Please model this.
Amino acid sequence: MGLVYVLLASGFNLILGISRILFIAYGEFYMLGAWIVWGLMVPMKLPFLLAVSASTIATGILGAIVYQIIFHHIQFKEQQFLTNIVAAIGLMMLMSQAAFYVFGTESRGIPSVIRGMLELGVIRISYEKIVLIVLTLAVLICLHLLLQKTKIGRAMRAVSFNADVASLQGINANLTYLGTMAVGCALAGFAGGVMAPVFAVSPKMGGVTLLIILVVMLGGVGSMPGAILSGLILGLTLSFGQYFIGSGVAQIIFFAVIAVILFFRPGGLFGEPEDIPLS
Model:
């Protein structure tokens, strides 16, 4: 769970840190990715890796389309922050209601991709979750290499620091924003896809957005190391808390931890009180 929250927080942070869009509808792309995998694996009987690849590509393309149709035109208008939030909330409601209309209110399950358990002393973990962990780590490594070692990543980091200066250096800021939205939404679709065989698929999965915003706040806006650390903290807190004291109390403890940390460090663990660029 911690690694899935890391994926979601990294994608959300990418969009927020570069495009300056508080993308409230982000959780719906996570939900959509899970439903795409369900549709390809259950009715169509396609292999798991092919279904996850399709969900990643589909949500990435949809994210690019959404940016080009909606946010490209309002991103830097007057009162841009509120305008972007209202547009994102409208998109969230549209996708959420469409999911309820198409799939209904019931949760659906996907047959196990890999059966069996690995036992290491008192620790027991399914092979299915091991595959999830390996795939998630592989994507996080690819994301790091994309941001640090490629021209696209350097363009993203340059635009996150100062879009005007980056444009003077020949970087197309609008194309960078488009690519950022595509990559960020693809990460959400991938996260939903790899989670689909492990947990039930539901139209309510989009509600994870609030937790992702809290993770980003805890780690620091624009900080990828912060997103990784805070995502793991959230996953471990909720998992151990649910096992020992119940999920409701675990969430209260996590919120209390965030409140204490933000009181002493308003910018988060790796951030500053003011906006910081993607690092």
Remarks:
- Residues 2-200 form one domain.
- DSSP finds eleven helices and two strands in the chain.
- The longest helix spans residues 48-74.
- The beta strands are 117-120, 123-126.
